[in-house]
Amino acid sequence: MIRRVFLLTVALLLGACATLPQQGYNREANQHIKKIQVLTMPQANVRLHIPNHIGYSFGLIGTLITEANRNSKETWLQDTAKRAQFNQFQDLQAALTSAMDAKGYELIWPEPLTDSKGVKRDGFELRKKYAPVDADAQLDLGFMYIGYTASAAEKSSPYRPTIELSVRLVSADGKKVLYAEQFRYHNVLDNKEAVILEPAPEHRYPKFEDLEKADLTVIDGLRGAVLDVANAVAQQL
Known about the structure:
The protein is an alpha/beta fold. It has 5 helices and 7 strands, in the order αββααβββββαα. Strands 1, 2, 3, 4, 5, 6 and 7 form a 7-stranded mixed sheet that branches. The chain is elongated, with a radius of gyration of 18 Å. The relative contact order is 0.19. Mean pLDDT is 87; it is low at 1-11.
């Protein structure tokens, strides 16, 4: 159990540090692309984390204590998201459809929006293989993280809404990557190789107790984050 908690924590931190190989989009060469098939997305729960919490530096015992405390806070956030009927996939669908429509793209969304079993994905939550689709291109989206983070357990490092979204646009036959990028809303680990978005200043909570007091308002922060990220994705295409 101790080993499992330790490895889970390390995986979360390393995943946040990982950088997707970037591929800029050539609009002139891809003027024919108007109809885009969006692929099913991987499941992603609302999370809460403090990646630089001092507790992680005190070995397995420190990690266990820190994780137990984090887990209870994360459970509160997940319950709050349920009470607010927050669905990041549906919010992303609505926001991205609107933003892409304004640029002349038609998005075809799957039903359901998320994966069933058997979809193999890489460390960026994107597919390892692509099959041909009946569209001009196909769009692969994966939430690496969505929730709240604080860079450290201090008042000077407040909890803020955080999203890490991987995006890859692939040719209709699945053989060519046309665009690839990561979007980081609240760049808590200061990763430079991504499209960086600053979180809304009104959703800034110095302590976890402030999150609790804000209650459903914290979910407004997540909804706003999804909207901002969707608009940023559309601007790139």
